[in-house]
């Protein structure tokens, strides 16, 4: 009888292991890894994601990173698109800081920039929603609204054969988000926080997209300089996972990004 | 006969594309179904990303995409198809192709995977189907 019990137990154990093996996924093959697509819609973290991750470590004073000066007026559509993206990131920052007035101020600035690109109508409805969510302190909804704003403006740009402006808007947004995260990290460095910043391949993806822009945009001094500096930024954001950037590297990265942002924020010459 | 073979070849090639575009109505239906399930995570404080990933799942082959995930955040990737008899699966892998320990939800044509990365970086998202025929799909992302 004891032998029968032992055999039954062995059969049950075998069945459990088989079931577990059937459920556990196999590793991807090298071909599959190569085939995995980099999709802008999915592969680039939003400012909201980045700030949410940093917000879990300590209590960042997000308001300290507000840009109080309104954007300098530009006539160059590529520079306006870069600034528009950066302002959208500022909207996420206002939401993270839970600052109603700043959210509304940024919304007004986004509207003016969208107007400069002939996209005011696309933003009108969202502008009211942003103010409404800010007033009712629905910060998560405000985050979602800002991402929707960016998506709709990008779709409108593509519809008007201005897809390159959507690329620049996306770049401006990502740079400003990393700028804020870098500033927070530079002021309050910990290796744990430095590990959050890692975003391999994003800078490389933007560099490739800038390279594919029409020559008349690619050769604009600000755009050309951004493309030149992206690899250095990418290198800091692509260090191995077990080797977070040092405090010195973070300071260097923050200086680099601040310089990149000033390329398109500064008044046109 | 050559023309028929050529057309068949082109159709076979189209079927093998990794996540080729889905038609408008199918994409809307899939998105709605994915959002319905993702509403469960929203009730738990997850924020929904506006951008979605839509396409057509090739037969017997997963659609694969790279995502950058941030340490400290938690994510849910929710997928849906409008093909009711299909069973979807969502899986997450490291950039080296190793499966990660993720929560899993499967309910026929809708599925989700939840993951809290301890390391920021690139991960690979896999969507697959069991039916052996190409089906449209949509994936929505939530995070907190």
Explain this structure.
Chain A has 269 residues and is mainly alpha-helical. Chain A has one domain. Chain A has helices spanning 2-23, 30-35, 40-43, 47-55, 77-97, 100-116, 120-135, 139-159, 163-187, 191-196, 202-211, 215-218, 221-237, 247-265; one strand spanning 37-38. The longest helix of chain B has 19 residues, at 24-42. The radius of gyration of chain B is 16 Å and the shape is globular. In chain B, the strands form two sheets. In chain B, strands 1-8-3-6-5 form a five-stranded antiparallel beta sheet, covered by helices on one side. A three-stranded antiparallel beta sheet of chain B has the order 2-7-4, with no helix packed on it. With 144 residues, chain B is α+β, with helices and mostly antiparallel strands. The chains are: A mainly alpha (269), B alpha+beta (144). The A-B interface holds A 24-30, 32-33, 35-39, 41-46, 48-50, 52-54, 56-57, 140, 143-144, 147-148, 150-151, 195-202, 241 and B 18-19, 45, 47-53, 62, 64-73, 91, 93, 95-99, 119-122, 124-126, 139, 141, 143-144.
Any chance you could write out the topology, listing elements then pairs?
The complex is a heterodimer of chains A (about 270) and B (about 140).
Chain A: H1 2-23, H2 30-35, E1 37-38, H3 40-43, H4 47-55, H5 77-97, H6 100-116, H7 120-135, H8 139-159, H9 163-187, H10 191-196, H11 202-211, H12 215-218, H13 221-237, H14 247-265
Helix pairs in contact in A: 4-5, 4-9, 5-6, 5-8, 5-9, 6-7, 7-8, 8-9, 9-14, 11-13, 13-14
Chain B: H1 2-16, H2 24-42, E1 47-57, E2 63-69, E3 75-80, E4 88-94, E5 103-107, E6 110-115, E7 121-129, E8 135-143
């Amino acid at each position: 009888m004891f032998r029968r019990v032992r055999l039954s137990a062995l059969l049950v154990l075998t069945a459990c292991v088989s079931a577990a093996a059937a459920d556990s996924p196999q590793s991807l093959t090298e071909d599959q890894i190569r085939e995995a697509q980099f999709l802008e819609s999915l592969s680039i973290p939003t400012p909201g994601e980045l700030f949410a991750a940093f917000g879990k470590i300590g209590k960042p004073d997000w308001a300290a990173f507000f840009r109080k000066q309104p954007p300098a007026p530009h006539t160059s559509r590529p520079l306006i698109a870069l600034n528009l993206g950066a302002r959208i990131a500022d909207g996420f920052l206002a939401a993270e800081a839970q600052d109603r007035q700043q959210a509304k101020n940024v919304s007004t600035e986004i509207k003016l920039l969208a107007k400069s690109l002939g996209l005011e109508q696309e933003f009108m409805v969202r502008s009211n929603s942003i103010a409404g969510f800010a007033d009712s302190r629905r910060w998560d909804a405000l985050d979602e609204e800002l991402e929707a704003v960016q998506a709709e403006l990008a779709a409108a740009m593509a519809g008007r054969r201005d897809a390159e402006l959507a690329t620049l808007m996306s770049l401006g947004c990502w740079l400003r988000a990393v700028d804020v995260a870098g500033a927070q990290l530079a002021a309050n460095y910990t290796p744990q926080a430095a590990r959050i910043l890692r975003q391999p391949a994003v800078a490389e993806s933007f560099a490739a997209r800038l390279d594919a822009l029409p020559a008349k945009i690619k050769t604009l001094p600000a755009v050309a300089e951004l493309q030149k500096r992206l690899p250095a930024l990418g290198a800091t954001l692509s260090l191995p996972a077990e080797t977070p950037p040092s405090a010195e590297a973070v300071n260097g990265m923050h200086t680099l990004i601040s310089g990149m942002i000033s390329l398109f924020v500064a008044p046109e010459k | 006969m050559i023309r028929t073979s050529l057309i068949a070849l082109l159709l076979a090639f189209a079927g093998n594309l990794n996540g080729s575009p889905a038609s408008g109505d199918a994409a809307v239906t899939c998105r709605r179904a994915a959002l319905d399930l993702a509403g469960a995570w929203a009730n738990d404080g997850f924020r929904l990303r506006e951008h979605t990933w839509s396409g057509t799942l090739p037969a017997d082959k997963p659609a694969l995409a790279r995502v950058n995930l941030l340490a400290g955040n938690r994510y849910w990737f929710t997928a849906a198809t409008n093909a009711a008899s299909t069973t979807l699966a969502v899986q997450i892998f490291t950039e080296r192709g190793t499966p990660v320990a993720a929560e899993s939800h499967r309910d026929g044509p809708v599925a989700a995977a939840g993951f809290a990365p301890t390391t920021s970086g690139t991960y690979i998202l896999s969507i697959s189907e069991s039916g052996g025929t190409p089906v449209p799909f949509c994936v929505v992302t939530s995070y907190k």
